[in-house]
Amino acid sequence: MKKFFAFVTVLLFVFNACAQNKTVNVADYGIKPGKDVTLEVYQLLNSLEGKKNVTLFFPKGQYEFYPENAFETYRAVTNHDNSLKKIAFPIYNFDDFTLDGNGSTFMFHGKIVPITVEGSRNTTLKNFTIDWEKSFVNELTVTENNKEENSFIVEVANEKFGFEVNNNQILFNHYDWQDEIGQNMAFDPATKSPIWQTKNYFLKPQPKTTAKIIKIDNKTAKFTNYTKVTPPVGTVFATYGKSPGANRFVPAIHLSNSIDNTLNNITVLAAGGMALIAERCENISLDTFIVTSREDRTISTRADATHFLGCKGSITLENCLLEHMLDDGINVHGAYVKVEKYLGKNTFLCETSHVQQWGFLFGEKGDEVMMISRETILPIFKTKIKKVKILNERRMLITVNEVPTKMPEGKLSLENLTWYPDLYMNKNIIRENRARSALITTKGKVLIENNYFSSQMHGILIEGDNNKWYESGGVQDITIRNNTFENIGYGNGISYPLIASPLFTSEQKLGDQKFHQNINFTNNVIKSFNGHLVFAMSVKGLNVSDNIIEISTDYPTGSVLPAIDLEFCEDVIIEKNQYKKFNFSITSAIKDNNSKVKIKKNKGLIN
Hints:
With 607 residues, the chain is mainly beta. The chain contains two helices and 51 strands. It has a 22-stranded parallel sheet that branches. Strands 15-14-18-9-10-17-16 form a seven-stranded antiparallel sheet, with no helix packed on it. A six-stranded antiparallel beta barrel has the order 26-27-30-29-28-31. A hairpin with a 4-residue loop joins strand 29 and strand 30 (395-400).
């Protein structure tokens, strides 16, 4: 009898395990490679609603997704253009869900968001590639040039859609829309990076000239007087439409209001926005998340590789390759909302100011918030949210538990202190992209180690602004160690591996306190053509030590800027940094408003 009960117990255990871990093979539902499976995937996802511990498994192949039969809903996607979005994989309100592509390629056509994870818990995405038949970026390769008339001929990578020239304007045809030039960037085919002194090659009719575009045939066009400097033969122009409103249609993956998100072994070859955008999520892990361009393209995504707004818990990136995108490698931050008016009774009328952040969820009941001066962007008063009433995408009423006895004078903002994540970055490569390698403005604990960075602008930017994108806030604990920075700032020659400074307008000013705190930049290797090391403003607790700065001759060497530039900083240690083989002066600029600054034992630095 005991053996019988033991046998039954084992059977029940096996049955429960099977019930708890169900693998759904899409082939069993008629979903096969080589055809449009958009509707079938949506119907299958619907049938799984309410089920837990499900793995949706795709036998390896290329699956096609078109917008005509896709699920559609209005989505406010932060840092993108809000609109009705068609979604191939709407993963809404799932628990313990896994999407396993088994090495498959998901090929998309037109304006369709591949994956949206909303209101879910413990979601795993793994083992697939995201691509589009036609990239959202228009690539033009210079095949001939004439410096005397400042003209050049380009071959347009029009694939099957082609392009038109009307009224001296070039229009690039896509699935069901057209792009004008809009934002654009010139890339060097030898480095696959933005070209040196990029601004000289910005596509724009030059003033006081006769600028024109002529279509030669279905693959080539001639530009005259469209750049300050005639581009070299081989230059690749990437054009991607106007912003805001016309070039951030669809991210590849959107995570929203979800807990415990894991992304493993995913490649993104194109996107009509960011490869990954995450907002109001808790705990996100990326391992072997690759953003790169397809072999027949120069550019990957229209915007950032990864972007995290208003998240908490931990964000982890390991073994990732992020390259060839038209914006930053990673951006982690919170957000300010402007106080338009204090209405009394502890209630503020607030506004989300940047159009591409309209509709994001700033806060909920119980969230801790800080009242901020918009003039100095320094903290004034801490309280908690009691109630939020959304009026529309842009404005809301926020009622808090307490307010100061006397309301401060001047313009105010609110900052959500609850939704800031820790960040860990290890063994990642971020390179050959427009803009920065990393933007980090989180109050959580940050450790960035063993990475490789090479970007057109700054290497790591620790900023915070209360005037443009309204990206908060002041950092409190950042360690950046054992990384390699190579040729940082090749777009203009004036950027730094590390810059820590709030962004001010002419109407804003430094306050009595420091904005950032506790930044450690140690044991890094910097291969540099200009010798730049750090620019810091309004930082308390800055340690820049034991870094090796080696000369690089990949770009013109020299600089008119100081290698170390400090303003309004306190408790600074800059020591035991070594400059190697530089044949020009390496200088520092320490303004009088700094305090407790120690600069010593830096080989090759003129104090």
